[in-house]
């Protein structure tokens, strides 16, 4: 009997050597394997004290110097005391904290290594550190009541900036977790915990909060030989239940006799999830004899050996391939199936991803006019289900809304305008065109690989002599007769199709642009998109939606300009004060904030109308007209706030301005947009 990872290593060696690989499953009593898998099946050490020791500690706590805990601190006391962070004996000491930050693991006294990527720390202010200096023990209190004693306290610097950069890849207070860290104390205190009693929240849900040892006991009672955990970041419904059910079935097929699943809560209030979970059980989709509801940090300490998280395919790969326990698009699809959710969940997810994977590279991409990791990044977008956000799930898409598309475009633009523009060209101009106009064969052939990120798509509809007047294009068919313009699906590698030299653009650098050259290019008849001679309709019918989604780009750039300039205004000092305290700058900041808010409201009101089937040409033109011009102005205002620093490329404001200007030109210039709006308004009076 071996761990899954070991089996996979052995499997790869056999496959590489062209040798058959066999797995043998032995039906062994649980008691027989407990010694071998001690970390999964035996009890973890809890930090509660009992009897005379408890009585003595409570009396001692009344005489000790005190630290008042926040609710978050108390939650960490609960995590530590119940054994979720075992083998930690209390809040991390400095050597443990640095190991977690630098190597995402802890070296234990016996020399073994344990994964530990999250710092479990207690932050205090400098005055608290000075007051408690030299104390051999400290009383930890919450809401006026002593809950624990911290023995042999060790004070050390928090290193907030390093912690943020190592954990999140950025040091920006706009991220909610980073703000929480920055708002906490400048010092950390570690030490051994002695907890008086189990933490109770008295909200009617404590009975669902099982400890690791209680969970292990439950699994033994169920005679579980595999435990698979699900983290669901949105309300439970039958889609989740069916995923759990299918996972259990697949584990049984692999030789496990009785796999047991349980879920944890995350972003959705626990009471809501409990009621939904009960409703799912009542409908008979899940078997209550093989499902455990719980509330806590999901760790191996609870006995889990397979883990599936909401939008991340962290589950167990299928040995035969092509049958993973988890579909990477599942999280994005069930997000649409859960009623009552707004875009906060999607926005938070894309923000975290973009700020970690894209924002740190934006300056280099702009400078080099190239994104070296584009292919890998594209596959990550596909992995998250973002590339086919509005495409049909039958062809690998997510089946989302245009408002979702705008959220993604906005948050990617906030990180990098150029790469976000490439995303818009791929997901909207290419994927959405095929989704709207392609036949079943074309969708089946092209959409899955476009949605996964294996292929990259774009839309070509202009020439040097045909920009706003696209029907003036000179590229022509050799086949006769001709009676119009036809749209085609062209693959890289078609004979006669090449690309010319990459253009050196003012902005949106890294979003590569070049001329496409067609010299006797042979295109199969089945690659006609839409109907023959109906190419103008195919392209023009999607322009309104193109303008809508692209309008999210300048909104994201405005947010980025606000991010950098507002923070600068509250750190840059002149005449002994932060420059943000001067009234003229306050007025400029107020205008920037109001402009951004107005643009965002206009954008998502138009997106909501399009989601409901009310596509309005004048508003789709209006929203990109307004957002594009305001983005240029807000970028200029950001440069002004930064002064000389705003004019040098060490800061992103110049890049934001150059990127923003493109949106006054692409997808129809501002002049063309005004013409469209005016024409539509005149038609209303005819």
From TrEMBL:
Amino acids binding substrate: 468, 537, 544-547, 667-668
Residues annotated as domain Acyl-CoA dehydrogenase/oxidase N-terminal: 345-454
GO BP: L-leucine catabolic process
UniProt enzyme class: oxidoreductase
GO molecular function: 3-methylbutanoyl-CoA dehydrogenase activity; flavin adenine dinucleotide binding; sulfate adenylyltransferase (ATP) activity
Domain ATP-sulfurylase PUA-like positions: 40-198
Domain Acyl-CoA dehydrogenase/oxidase C-terminal: 533-681
Cofactor: FAD
InterPro entries named in the record: Acyl-CoA_DH_CS (IPR006089), AcylCo_DH/oxidase_C (IPR009075), AcylCoA_DH/ox_N (IPR013786), ATP-Sase_PUA-like_dom (IPR025980), IVD (IPR034183)
GO cellular component entries: mitochondrion
Signal peptide: none
Residue sites binding FAD per the record: 459-468, 572, 583, 640-644, 669-671
Catalysis performed (reactions): pentanoyl-CoA + oxidized [electron-transfer flavoprotein] + H(+) = (2E)-pentenoyl-CoA + reduced [electron-transfer flavoprotein]; 3-methylbutanoyl-CoA + oxidized [electron-transfer flavoprotein] + H(+) = 3-methylbut-2-enoyl-CoA + reduced [electron-transfer flavoprotein]; butanoyl-CoA + oxidized [electron-transfer flavoprotein] + H(+) = (2E)-butenoyl-CoA + reduced [electron-transfer flavoprotein]; hexanoyl-CoA + oxidized [electron-transfer flavoprotein] + H(+) = (2E)-hexenoyl-CoA + reduced [electron-transfer flavoprotein]
EC number: 1.3.8.1, 1.3.8.4
Highest taxon of the lineage: Eukaryota
Any Pfam family matching the protein: PUA_2
Coiled coil region boundaries: none
Positions annotated as active site in the UniProt record: 546 (proton acceptor)
Pathway: Amino-acid degradation; L-leucine degradation; (S)-3-hydroxy-3-methylglutaryl-CoA from 3-isovaleryl-CoA: step 1/3
Entry keyword set: FAD, Flavoprotein, Oxidoreductase
Function: Catalyzes the conversion of isovaleryl-CoA/3-methylbutanoyl-CoA to 3-methylbut-2-enoyl-CoA as an intermediate step in the leucine (Leu) catabolic pathway. To a lesser extent, is also able to catalyze the oxidation of other saturated short-chain acyl-CoA thioesters as pentanoyl-CoA, hexenoyl-CoA and butenoyl-CoA.
Listed name of the protein: Isovaleryl-CoA dehydrogenase, mitochondrial
Protein species of origin: Manduca sexta (Tobacco hawkmoth)
């Amino acid at each position: 009997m071996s761990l899954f990872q070991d089996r996979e290593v052995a499997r790869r060696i056999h496959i590489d050597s062209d040798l058959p690989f066999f797995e043998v499953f032995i039906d062994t009593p649980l008691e027989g394997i407990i010694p071998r898998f001690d970390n999964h099946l035996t009890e973890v050490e809890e930090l509660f004290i009992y009897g005379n020791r408890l009585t003595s500690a409570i009396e001692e706590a009344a005489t000790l110097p005190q630290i008042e805990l926040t609710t978050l601190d108390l939650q960490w006391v609960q995590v530590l005391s119940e054994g979720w962070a075992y083998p930690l004996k209390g809040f991390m000491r400095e050597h443990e904290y640095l190991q977690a930050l630098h190597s995402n693991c802890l070296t234990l006294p016996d020399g073994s290594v344990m994964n530990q990527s999250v710092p479990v720390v207690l932050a205090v202010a400098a005055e608290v550190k000075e007051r408690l200096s030299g104390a051999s023990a400290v009383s930890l209190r919450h809401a006026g009541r002593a809950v624990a004693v911290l023995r042999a306290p060790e004070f050390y610097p928090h290193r907030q900036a390093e912690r943020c950069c190592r954990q999140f890849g950025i040091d920006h207070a706009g991220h909610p977790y980073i703000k929480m860290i920055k708002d906490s104390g400048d010092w950390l205190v570690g030490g051994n915990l002695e907890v008086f009693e189990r933490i109770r929240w008295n909200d009617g849900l404590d009975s669902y909060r099982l400890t690791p040892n209680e969970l292990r006991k439950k699994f033994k009672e169920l005679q579980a030989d595999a435990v698979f955990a699900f983290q669901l970041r949105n309300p439970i419904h039958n889609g989740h239940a069916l995923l759990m059910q299918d996972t259990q079935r697949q584990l049984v097929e692999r030789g496990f006799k009785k796999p047991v699943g349980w879920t944890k809560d995350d972003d959705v209030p626990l009471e809501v999830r409990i009621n939904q979970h009960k409703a799912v059980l009542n409908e008979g989709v899940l078997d209550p004899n093989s499902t455990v509801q719980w509330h806590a940090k999901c760790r191996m300490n609870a006995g889990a050996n397979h883990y599936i998280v909401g939008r991340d395919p962290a589950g167990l790969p299928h040995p035969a391939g092509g049958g993973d326990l988890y579909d990477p698009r599942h999280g994005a699809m069930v997000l649409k199936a859960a009623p009552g959710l707004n875009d906060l969940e999607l926005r938070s997810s894309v923000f975290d991803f973009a700020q970690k994977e894209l924002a740190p590279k934006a300056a280099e991409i702009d400078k080099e006019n190239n994104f070296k990791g584009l292919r890998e990044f594209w596959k990550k977008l596909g992995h998250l289900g973002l590339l086919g956000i509005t495409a049909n799930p039958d062809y690998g898409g997510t089946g989302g809304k245009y408002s979702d598309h705008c959220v993604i475009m906005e948050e990617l633009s906030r990180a990098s305008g150029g790469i976000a523009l490439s995303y818009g060209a791929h997901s909207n101009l290419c994927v959405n065109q095929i989704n709207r106009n392609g036949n079943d064969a074309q969708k089946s052939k092209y959409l899955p690989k476009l949605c996964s990120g294996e292929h990259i798509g774009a839309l070509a509809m202009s020439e040097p002599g045909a920009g706003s007047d696209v029907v003036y294009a000179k590229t022509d068919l050799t086949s006769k007769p001709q009676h119009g313009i036809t749209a085609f699906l062209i693959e890289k590698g078609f004979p006669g199709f090449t690309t010319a030299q990459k253009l050196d653009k003012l902005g949106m650098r890294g979003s590569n642009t070049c001329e496409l050259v067609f010299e006797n290019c042979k295109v199969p008849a089945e690659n006609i998109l839409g109907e023959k001679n109906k190419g103008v309709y195919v392209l023009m019918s999607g322009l309104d939606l193109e303008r809508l989604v692209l309008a999210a780009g300048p909104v994201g750039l405005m947010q980025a300009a606000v991010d950098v300039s507002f923070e600068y205004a509250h750190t840059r000092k002149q005449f002994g004060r932060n420059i943000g305290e001067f009234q003229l700058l306050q007025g400029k900041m107020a205008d920037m904030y109001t402009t951004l808010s107005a643009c965002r409201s206009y954008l998502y009101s138009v997106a909501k109308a399009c989601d409901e089937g009310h596509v309005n040409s004048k508003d789709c033109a209006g929203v990109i007209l307004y957002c594009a011009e305001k983005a240029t102005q807000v970028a200029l205002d950001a440069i002004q706030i930064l002064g000389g620093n705003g004019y040098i490329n060490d800061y992103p404001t110049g890049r934001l301005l150059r990127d923003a200007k493109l949106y006054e030109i692409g997808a129809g210039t501002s002049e063309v947009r005004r013409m469209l709006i005016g024409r539509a308004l005149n038609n209303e009076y005819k």
